[in-house]
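--- STAGE predict ---
source: upstream dedup step, 1 unique chain passed
mode: sequence only
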Amino acid sequence: MRNGYLKELDEAKTRNEDPPFASFIQPHPHAVHKIFLPGIKARASTTALKAFYLGGWNIHCIPAPESASPRLFSSPPAPAPHIPIMLLSIIIPAWNEEKLLPETLASIRLAASASLDPAGIRWDIIVCDNNSTDSTAAVAAAGGARVIFEPVNQIGRARNTGSTAVAAECDWLLFVDADSTPTAALFADLAAALRNPRILGGGSLLHMPLEERGARVALGIWHAISTKFRYAAGSFLFVRTDAFREVGGFDTTFFAGEELFLSQALKKVAKKRAMDFVILSRNPMPTSPRKLQMHEPWHHLAWLLKTILTGGRTLKRRESCDIWYDGQR
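--- STAGE serialize ---
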């Protein structure tokens, strides 16, 4: 099997084409490509993952997952004849997320099978490995996701790179964080939104298991702002693919808060098209409170005040956004 994969890879490179087994992989437009080959065991290795280089491709060998599906999109039962099939790509940016990513992928698969399949919405999962140093990529591939690599460690850039891997005919994009676990009820609400011709995109309120009163108050304030001004949290943001392309995706001049600026841009497009940008509220998205728990309340308050006093310039400096980039997991 290994020789067959490498022969196909060489032939594809000669023709300047994507490899024919790209349901599990996506080439990256940089000099070195990171490729994941299912079903090949690493030679002379005691670990589940071993990398070797061949002809400019960085090939990662992983055992074939027993339950993961390498299909580009799911294959739900055909909907009623009058209901057209829709295509949705679920994009997850991931930096050193080997611990939480398996639960996220499992939750997405369960929720999608329960709520998207019956609605005639075919879906796939794309994980953008944002230069992880752990086994995030192998975990993602083992969970049935397609994996694409982004070397620059930046959340918005990883989301944009993930969006480049979607099929040309994809109707919708859904961005989900690697520490979030969507439910079937939330995906049922999502399916209804995707089927609504007046909706261009939107987000969801969040559910976090918070013990500290201050953290609960902060989440409540965010919910009020999100609902009133229709700002989507980055942990759950869905949008029509053509609208996402029209606004240029996430603004990569920001290292944090990029979803707020994307929401603002999408609301303008929605207004121009006489459509809506909505926030789903009936079944909030379960997500991890780790950023609130790993830093003291005073740290968050100091960061917020600094961001306000600098007119948002803090958001454009990676070193000032340590809440997201200090590497704590």
